[in-house]
C-alpha cells in the first residue's frame, strides 16, 4: 500500500510539472508578437535582447519555455553589431509575464578578436564584459552565404554547439576559441546585413 501511494504521489507531482503554463510571445522581424499561453515541461522564460548597431540601440522582449541551457545571460560582439541578453526563468504558472530590464552596460576586458568588415575579416573588435572567447560562424540562407566573426561569452559558445536549422536559417559551422585573436583573419564574401540578426538569434535561442 505504501508503495502504491508513493507511486501515485510521484505521478501527481510529475503531472504538475509537465503542466506548467507559460506566456509565449516571440517577435518575428519588426512585427509585434501576440501573447499566448503554452504548456512547458521545465521552466518559463522571459528575456530582453539588446542589439546595438551603428549608434542605434534596440531592445527586443520575448517570452517562451525555458531550459537550464537557455536560462543564462549571453552576449556577442561582431563589430557591426553587439548583442546581449538578460534572461530570467521561473517555475510557477504564467510567471514570465514581466519584462526584464535591458542588459547592463559592459566594458572592454582587454581581449580582441577578428571581425568582418565589408568582404574582409581582417578587422578586429574589442571584447567586453565576460566575452572571453572568439567566435567564427557561417550560415547558408537560400543561395546566400554569410560569415561572422567576433567576441562571445562561454554560454553563447556552449549554446552554439546545439544550433539547428530554424526559420529558414541554417548555420553550417560555428567554432569558438579561447586565445586572443584566435579566430583567424580570412577573406569572405558577405551577404546582407539583416541576415546577421537571425543567425545570432539562432545561436542565442536555439
TrEMBL record:
Keywords: Receptor, Secreted, Signal
InterPro entries assigned to the protein according to its UniProt record, in alphabetical order: CNF-like_PLA2_Inhibitor, LY6_UPA_recep-like, Snake_toxin-like_sf
GO CC terms, sorted: extracellular region
Residues spanning the membrane: none
Domain UPAR/Ly6: 20-110, 112-191
Subcellular location: Secreted
The organism's place on the tree of life at top rank: Eukaryota
Pfam families: UPAR_LY6
Signal sequence coordinates: 1-19
Name under which the protein is recorded: Urokinase plasminogen activator surface receptor isoform X2
Amino acid at each position: 500500500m505504501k508503495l502504491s501511494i508513493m507511486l501515485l504521489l510521484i505521478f501527481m507531482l510529475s503531472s504538475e510539472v509537465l503542466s506548467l503554463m507559460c506566456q509565449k510571445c516571440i517577435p518575428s522581424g519588426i512585427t509585434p508578437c501576440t501573447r499566448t499561453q503554452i504548456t512547458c515541461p521545465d521552466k518559463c522564460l522571459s528575456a530582453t535582447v539588446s542589439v546595438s548597431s551603428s549608434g542605434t540601440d534596440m531592445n527586443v522582449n520575448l517570452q517562451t519555455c525555458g531550459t537550464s541551457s537557455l536560462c543564462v545571460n549571453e552576449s556577442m560582439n561582431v563589430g557591426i553589431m553587439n548583442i546581449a541578453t538578460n534572461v530570467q526563468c521561473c517555475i510557477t504558472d504564467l510567471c514570465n509575464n514581466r519584462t526584464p530590464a535591458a542588459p547592463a552596460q559592459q566594458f572592454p576586458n582587454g581581449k580582441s578578436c577578428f571581425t568582418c568588415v565589408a568582404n574582409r575579416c581582417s578587422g578586429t573588435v574589442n571584447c567586453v564584459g565576460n566575452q572571453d572567447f572568439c567566435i567564427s560562424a557561417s550560415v547558408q540562407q537560400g543561395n546566400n552565404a554569410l560569415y561572422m566573426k567576433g567576441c562571445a561569452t562561454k554560454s553563447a559558445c556552449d549554446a552554439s554547439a546545439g544550433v539547428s536549422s530554424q526559420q529558414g536559417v541554417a548555420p553550417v559551422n560555428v567554432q569558438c576559441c579561447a586565445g586572443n585573436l584566435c579566430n583567424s583573419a580570412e577573406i569572405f564574401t558577405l551577404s546582407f546585413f539583416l541576415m546577421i540578426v537571425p543567425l545570432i538569434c539562432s545561436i542565442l535561442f536555439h
